[in-house]
Write a structure and sequence with these properties.
Length: 316
């Protein structure tokens, strides 16, 4: 590469960095060339991606003219690419994470997590595969002329190196424990002149954390009666329910008052009937006494007449 070409590359990088918001160094270790080109095309509208030699990047960083960018040199190695973008660094990292694709394991790689073979049917026919599966402790059976795995089995723990026999077996079982793509190593924010390392992007975990935090915040807002567009529906519903409860209490009081009034009227009617019955009884007693008096008088007159008949001389 001639001096002029190198100088042009350096100047081009410097201009791109000056006109951007984010400069990122990404690892392309283990990334096949085809996948690199596919990802580069997929994020073309969001970022400029280029693979250049270390000395070109170092010269561009020094020519950029800001001392705050120089520590990036410590993160430059043979398996990196340079990414320049107008997007926020973490937003850009999220875009690149979404472009990763599953990949087979290769001999010598380190298991990113426990590698497990699930129970179920396979497309493997009985033969050498039986001994290969048995060598890693997998229980098998032959069903319908194919090998079936009888129980789940972790064949390699997280952090362990992948041996050739394991890599071969995983490929036969079509298990892809790795994802390949552009892995962010370090971000330089051009505007704030800050460097960010230890970049981890897990969109699913972030979504779950946001949902959990949102739920807790909503519950707290409802508890302290904080009114906003997220809580107003809850408070309106609660107010409506309270109105219905109070309405039911009012109706109950009215019914109770009505029952008391009906009871009082009933007692009054019974009292009037008793008074009326007493008057009738006295009237009947009075009438009965007159008749008895008349009857006694008549009896006395009869006795007198009888005495005169028996003693006519005394009567004369």
């Amino acid at each position: 590469m001639t001096i002029n070409i190198k100088e042009n590359q350096v100047n081009e990088l410097v201009e791109k960095i000056k006109g951007s918001k984010t400069l990122m160094l990404v690892s392309v270790k283990g990334l096949p060339s085809k996948q690199f080109q596919d990802i580069k095309k997929a994020i073309r509208e969001d970022a400029f991606v280029v693979m250049v030699k270390k000395n070109i990047v170092v010269r561009a960083l020094n020519k950029f003219g800001k001392g705050s960018i120089l520590p990036l040199e410590n993160h430059i190695n043979a398996d990196i690419a340079l990414v320049v973008s107008d997007k926020d660094g973490y937003e850009l990292a999220g875009i690149m994470a979404s472009k990763k694709t599953p990949a087979y394991a290769k001999t010598g790689q380190i298991a990113p997590e426990d590698i497990e073979v699930k129970a179920g049917p396979t497309d493997l026919v009985p033969g050498p595969a039986i001994s290969e599966l048995g060598a890693v402790g997998i229980q098998i059976a032959v069903e319908d002329g194919k090998i079936a795995i009888k129980a789940d089995k972790v064949i390699l723990d997280e952090g362990k190196e992948i041996k050739e026999n394991v890599a071969s077996l995983l490929q036969k079982l079509d298990i892809k424990p790795f994802t390949v793509g552009l892995n962010p190593l370090v971000i330089y924010d051009v505007e704030s002149e800050k460097i960010y390392t230890d970049i981890k992007i897990d969109s699913e975990a972030a979504k779950l954390e946001i949902a959990s935090s949102s739920g807790k915040a909503l519950g707290f807002a409802q508890k302290i009666a904080y009114y906003c567009k997220e809580t107003i529906g809850y408070f309106l519903g609660k107010a409506n329910a309270d109105v219905e409860v109070l309405g039911g209490l009012d109706k109950g009081e009215e019914d109770s008052e009505g029952e008391d009034k009906d009871g009082e009227e009933k007692v009054e009617r019974e009292k009037n009937e008793e008074d009326k019955g007493g008057e009738n009884s006295e009237s009947s007693s009075s009438d009965g006494g007159g008749e008895d008096g008349n009857k006694t008088k008549e009896d006395e007159e009869d006795k007198k007449d009888q005495a005169e008949l028996n003693n006519p001389e005394e009567s004369a």
